[in-house]
Every structure is written in structure tokens, then in C-alpha cells.
Amino acid sequence: MLALPGIASAESSAAPTAAPANDRAYWLQTLLKIVDPVLTAAARGQLKANMPIEAAAGQLEGRKAVSHLEALGRTLAGLAPWLEHSASSEAEKAQQQRYAVMARQAIALAVNPESPDFLNFNQGGQPLVDAAFLAHGLLRAPTQLWSQLPAAAQAQVVQALQSSRVIKPVYSNWLLFTAMVEAALLKLTGTGDVVRMDYAIKQHLAWYKGDGTYGDGPDFHWDYYNSYVIQPMLLDVVRTLVDAKKESPALLETLVARARRYAVVQERLIGPDGSFAAFGRSLAYRCGAFQLLGQMALQQQLPPELGAGQVRSALTAVIRRTMEPKGTFDAKGWLQIGLCGHQPSIGETYISTGSLYLCTVAFLPLGLPATDAFWTSPAADWTARKIWSGQDVKTDHAL
């Protein structure tokens, strides 16, 4: 492994195995189980050597060039809020420190041309996507994932992100990948391409279809991309611009109002047993389909009709339904393609092992302290459980 000044060597740490005492403990145990193989390998410069790559028939060779950045970028996009928050218990602080060290080591190795794990940020189209997820992780944890990197590693991160500019985005949610890269550069270095951000924002405003939902490009798609990408990135890009005094706070208020409505829709999509309608593409991202609902909880923007205990209970059910079935993980703890267990045919041609780590974005509320109402509120039935058990429920209305 390359010696990196300022970053301690990270040893493997097994995810906790004790029975969780509450929902928060269960969430954290599950998240660390997911990310541990990725970060343990990547922190040693062994991600390329150790990560198995599962892909659709005929796609394996093409995915080998991109799957490792997928795994790292998506892992950090979901893990970042937990790394960034101030834990109250000594045990959790120790876990945070361990995983933060591994994450920084992994980032530094990923952008160092002399590393065996130097990753692809600019060859083909896919690296733009995962440069953006890595950028989102940096934006969500600027202290832990950026400020504590050595200056040389920071410079190489900037070079890597900027190198993705050669990739022309698809005229769709991909515009937000270019915008997210620039937002992170703006936040972390003070300089980002405002034109790329503004173009992505304006196009998505034009693609708004009403009732809290955007088109994926000019057309509406029945899938979960409003949550996988569109609304979380749109919100955080605009918030970054507002903080830099380069965008109107009124625009952010409009986007938040729409996102709150979409959060209501998402909560109602969760069935009584934690399952949800399996329509659209990228179902192999599992519980990551509910990133937006989790982000609204993290950012204290849940609408009043969604109680904290209700949302936590609903998301816990989704996590259990998608992460516990047999076959979710292989014998060494790596994720396998599927929504409910190992279902290779659910993976599209662009899905490979690294892609699957977008499931981590369901865990964003772990960035809230254990004392927050999201964790301390009593468990409560969510809308589908109320309706299908015969409870009286208020009617739903469009925005």
C-alpha cells in the first residue's frame, strides 16, 4: 500500500454483530456491514484486487473499468452524514474514527496515479456518474472527507473531479452529475463552473411535471430516479449555490416544497411489510430508492403529516425487506445483484457490483444525533400499515 502522509493505516474492522438495541443501532449495524468490505479493501489499495464484479451477460469486461469508482463513490455518498455528525457515545466515536480513516485512505488512493487503486474518472461515460456520487459524499462530509485529507490528496481529488468534465452528459438526470461535481468544487475550493450548475437547474425546472415530480429529461418515467438522483442532487446543488450567494433562496424554498410533497408520495409507496412497487429501472439499488425521504429527515424538512417515528419505522421496514433476504451478500460480504435477495436478472446492462452500493443512501438519517426526534420518537405505523389494517386515514391531496 502506498504511504500517504497524514493518513493512518487502516486495519480491517468487522461490522458489529451484537443484537441491536433499537432502530438506530440496527441501521448502523446494517450500514457498516454493507460498507465494510468496500472500505477495508479500498483503504489498503486492494479494491481492484479484491472486489468481485457481477454483471449482466456480456457486460463484465466493460464494467471492470468503472465498477470500482461506483463502489467507492456510492458508499461514501450514503456513509458521509454519519461520518460528519458528532456522536455522543465513545463507542460510536471510535467507529466513526475507524471508518473515517479508511474512507480518507480510500479517497487518497483512488486519485493517486501511482496507486494500484487509481480509479477511472474520465474514460467512457459512466465515470461522470460516480464522480458525482463521490462529490456528493464530499459535500455531505466536508470535515471528515475533505478537510482532513493531506494537501497533496486534496489537489489530486480536484484534478480527478475536473477530469470528468470531458464526459458529455446524457440529456436527462445526468445533467445533475455535472452540476454535483461543480457544486463540490465550489464548496471545497471556492471555484466551480456556475454555468454547468445553472444549466442543469434550469432544465430540471423546465422538466417539472407537477405534484412534486420531475421528468427524467423531457419525459416522465415511472421509476425511482426522482429519489436516486434528481431531487437529492438538485436540492444540494442549489443549497450550495445559495450558501455561496450565487442563487436565490426563493428557488431553494420552491424545490424544498416540491421535495416535501415527494416525500409524502414516497412514504405512501412503502407497503405494510416494507416492500414497495417494483417498477422502473435500477431496482438493484434496493432501499436506496428512498434516498429522498431519508434526506428530508436528515435536513429536518419532513412535512407535518409525516411524523418522525412513522418515517423511521417505514424506512426500517424497507431496509429489513431489502437487505436481510438470503443472497443479498456473497460469502465474503459483498453485495449481489437483486432487490430481494440474489436476483441477477433484475440488473440492467449498466448494473454491476459497484452499482449496488447506492443502497447506502437510504441511511442518510444516521447523520442525525441519537437524541434527535427521528430516533427517539416512538415507533408508529406508516400510511400503508394504517390503511390496510383498517385504521382511519386522512385523504391525500396533490401539491
UniProtKB/TrEMBL annotation:
Annotated ranges, domain DUF2264: 23-382
InterPro entries reported for this sequence: DUF2264_N, UCP014753
Protein name: DUF2264 domain-containing protein
Organism: Hymenobacter cavernae
